[in-house]
């Protein structure tokens, strides 16, 4: 007759039971750090002249990271949050339709063209073709290997902490 005795089964079972919570906590912390790093890369590199130069700073100020976790899910989002109407067309490119430009804070528009100052009550804008100037997707692509490695490392570390 053959008899086998296993010692420490309870410890292994407890460690396996704790692993999902430890993994989620580790991934949540790592996702937050990575998302904040990605948002900072967009603000400090892409929107400081590498892709777009700031005029008002509104787009740069709208870039943020949001972290959400429900149940076993962990989600990190980096994007333009707020009312920056041109954020998407700068990222993806596109066309604007012909439209009329009217003054909203004065009685006339003032602008410089061909070295001379001009005034007008309205301007018929012919529309524009805006080229793609990716500041979000290009940053994510540049950080992809770092993000994948960091999340894989988080999974490995959580096993040691479970």
Question: What is the topology?
Answer:
Elements lengths: L8 H36 L13 H5 E8 L2 E8 L6 H6 L1 E3 L2 E3 L7 E5 L2 E5 L2 E3 L2 E3 L6 H25 L1
Antiparallel strand pairs: 1-2, 3-8, 4-7, 5-6
Helix pairs in contact: 1-4
Output the structural class. Answer: alpha+beta
Total helix count? Answer: 4
Count of extended strands:
8
Shape: rod-shaped
Number of domains: 2
Radius of gyration (CA) equals 26 Å
Task: Give the overall pLDDT as a whole number.
Answer: 89
Strand content: 15-25%
Please report the distance between the alpha carbons of the first and last residues: 37 Å
Report on this structure:
By secondary structure, the protein is an alpha+beta fold. The chain folds into two domains: 104 residues, no CATH class; 37 residues, no CATH class. The chain is built from four helices and eight strands. The strands form four sheets. A two-stranded antiparallel ribbon has the order 1-2. Helix 1 packs antiparallel against helix 4. The longest helix is centred in the first third of the chain and has 36 residues.
